[in-house]
Amino acid sequence: MRSTLHISVRRLGLLILAFPLAAVAQQTHADFAARIGMESHIGNVTGHAKNAQYDYRRYCVGCHGERGDGMGENFPWIDPKPRDFQLGIFKCRSTPTGTLPTDQDLSDTIARGIDRSNMPSWNTFTLQQKADLVAWVKHFSPRWASEKPGTPIQIPPEPAVTAERLKNGREIFAKVQCWKCHGVTGEANGPSAATLQDDLGRPIAPFNFTEGSPKCGSSDADLYRIFMTGLDGTPMPSFADNIKPDEAWDLVFYLKSLEPKKSKEREIATKLQLKPVDTTPPGQQ
Amino acid sequence: MQNHRTGQSPLKSTLLAQLCAKSRLRESRILIAILLSMLGMGNTPSAHALPAFARKYGLRCSACHESWPMLNYFGQKFKDNGYQLMNDRDAPIWQNASYWPITLRMTPFWSRESVNKLAVDSAPTGEQKITTTGFNLGGLDILTMGTLEKNFSFQLVPSSDETGAFHFEAVNVRFDNLLHSPWLNVKVGKFELDTFISEKRGLTLSGSGGEYQLFHFIPVGDGNIFGQVGDNQLGAEWMGHSDNDRTRLSAAVFSSTDGNVDVPYGQNSYSAFFAGSQAFSAGKLGVQRIGGYAMYGVAPTTYLTSGGVPIPGSGIGNKSFSRVGFEGLFYLGQHLDFQVFTQHGSDDAWFGACYGDIITGTCDPTTQNNTTGILPAGARKPTWNGAFVETHYVYSPQLTIFQRSEWIRMSQQAFATNPSNLGDIDNYVVGYRYNPFMTSRAGFAFHNEYSWIRQRGTSPVTATDLSSNSLMLGFDFDF
């Protein structure tokens, strides 16, 4: 009884904290019905929301809920919490912060899954299934009726990794204060790590570069994209206005050197005997 | 929940008891066997659908099962990855410490069972139709499966029949993604052979329709119990698959014991099973899968005896048998799918003459022990062909209507004097499963089913067609 009450109080608290967003996103079945004609376009495949009801019910509803609000039966038990599609806010995008993702972004997330969450990889779905599900996800939020997705950011070709680039990446890591959340060694133990919350007021952990894979993909280009688009709905901002594309690649290389797996970046960092960034304020060093 | 040691249906065990060893069994024993078989109406194979996995991952039954326990493509991939989603939630170290990977399945039901010709002392012809109705149980499965660590998993399935007598249906450990390759997965222990159409995950449960006949077919009078594709076997299996599980290959080698422990038959008798399949996308129709399998084995026909009783494990004089066929799973959109399974089977002439299993009494240990090496006059290799088509109309993840039609035809009898259609089987099943709720915690289904089966020329006294039918109204609990 006590645990039930505890959960209810937590949920109530979350609802209060989330009120500004929830008020915007409060959706009725009539709203959904009005958007049931939603489409998606992925390559030459057109997805139709109405065709995804069956698959959504089969695969997704347990977490994301009948109304797409993330309040499925698993909500109380899993962490991170399921995405609330009604808000129309998504972490994994190729588009600038604050904009809607492309249909391809959503399809990629379905296929890739999200590591360190309960969202598995659904790469067994056909292209058509994914396209239909993307349209279905979109129909939950009014944002898709009034806004267009952002324009995907351009990712310049990846340069060759060098010692200079790695050292520069370390400087950028210090300059934009990645360490405050991710820690100086990338182990998610920075001074702000314990205080982080997502937009709904839920505690959220920064990514630990020494284990696991980033939520939105683990390739170099994925990391680059994450810096430049940010992860909307989380404390991870976009650095598109703070660092240049070349610097972003340097940061990618430095972060790869923090990962324990064998890589050219790690090899160079070992040779350089690269030390963690010094976070002592100027004047106190 | 059926007779897992032999994997035989009541009708088939009756037939084997009556025909293969007809000359040596007293009629009263036959009648008892028949009645016991009838009363063992719940013919539910030990079926694998594990809410323990649903609880672990927070996924509903429908994520992995077309209709539980039948796997869909996602569930097949999960199984082929060693019961892993291949994310960081796989290893138990990341689970809540109270998580326990155990599922219980039980099936209470009411049924009406009818057999058209049974040996009855008081019947004018010696045979009589017997119909009985009543409440019954389908036994109990305790399904434990899970990961010990990333890429190390296990399966342990103690299973009871309806009397509460337990046996180990499956016991194995598996090592997956060796050398970081999905093509290198190894399993050792007692396990299901790798047909992607799985009887262990079949939807049918009734007395005359719970089994795939082709998975257990033994020609009338044949002594080879070792070639049953549907019985779990003791051995080792290599299995490999592509990242997305569209291409699957496997090879297994196992003792020719039909899954029985302690090697009770041959001194050096082994069988092998090979399977492969390829899935492909057919646009809006869905992902289709086609494949094939081949089973080849040898089993003993000669045993040393002590006091006239065959000595377990002393068997030599290996003779061969084979089973080959195709299988397919075809989707016509989201709601309709067809499973197709074919088989060509062949047994050595010695088996056809009822040499082989004299340890558990399929054959007569006094007259059918191959000590002379002289094949009975006129004995030939029995061969047969068969197929079934099982259709599922999945109205929603909660309601599935199904049917199966199955036919087995002998192409060569063990003796030319046998009627050419002796032992041919026709089996039809129709039913539905309705899950009034579907969550990621437990499974529950109303299960109603009707089945009918006929085997040619096998009635106990007049050697005419023997048929039976079952009507089952039950509940399937899975927690």
Note down, in words, how this protein is organized.
The complex is a heterodimer of chains A (285) and B (479). Chain A is mainly α. Helix content of chain A is 41%, strand content 3%. The longest helix of chain A has 16 residues, at 2-17. Residues 1-10 and 12-24 of chain A have low confidence and may be disordered. With 479 residues, chain B is mostly beta strands. A 16-stranded antiparallel beta barrel of chain B has the order 3-4-5-6-7-8-9-10-11-14-15-16-17-18-19-20. A two-stranded antiparallel sheet of chain B has the order 1-2. Residues 1-42 of chain B have low confidence and may be disordered. Helices cover 10% and strands 43% of the residues of chain B. Chain A binds chain B through residues 54-55, 57-59, 61-63, 73-74, 77-78, 113, 115-116, 118, 120-124, 126-128, 212, and chain B through 57-60, 62-63, 73-74, 77, 85-89, 243-245, 281, 283-284, 286-287, 334-335, 396-397, 439-441.
What attributes does this structure have?
heterodimer; A: 285 residues; two-stranded antiparallel ribbon; elongated; disordered N terminus; B: 479 residues; mainly beta; 16-stranded antiparallel β-barrel; 6 helices; 43% strand; globular
In brief:
The complex is a heterodimer of chains A (285) and B (479). Chain A is mainly α and 285 residues long.
Apparent shape of chain A: elongated
What letter string, H or E per element, gives the SSE order of chain B?
HHHHEEHEEEEEEEEEEEEEHEEEEE
Largest sheet of chain B: 16 strands, antiparallel, barrel
Radius of gyration of chain A: 20 Å
Query: N-to-C SSE series of chain A?
Result: HHHEEHHHHHHHHH
Largest interface (CB < 8 Å) = A-B, 25 and 29 residues
Query: What is the number of E strands of chain B?
Result: 20
Strand order of the largest sheet of chain B: 3-4-5-6-7-8-9-10-11-14-15-16-17-18-19-20
Assign the structural class of chain A, choosing from mainly alpha, mainly beta, alpha/beta, alpha+beta, or little secondary structure: mainly alpha
Subunit arrangement of the protein: heterodimer
Strand content of chain A: under 5%
Give the uncertain stretches of chain B in residue-range form.
1-42
Number of strands of chain A: 2
Shape of chain B: globular
Distance between the ends of chain A: 54 Å
SS class of chain B: mainly beta
Mean pLDDT over the full residue set of chain A: 89
The radius of gyration over CA of chain B amounts to 22 Å
Average pLDDT figure of chain B: 89
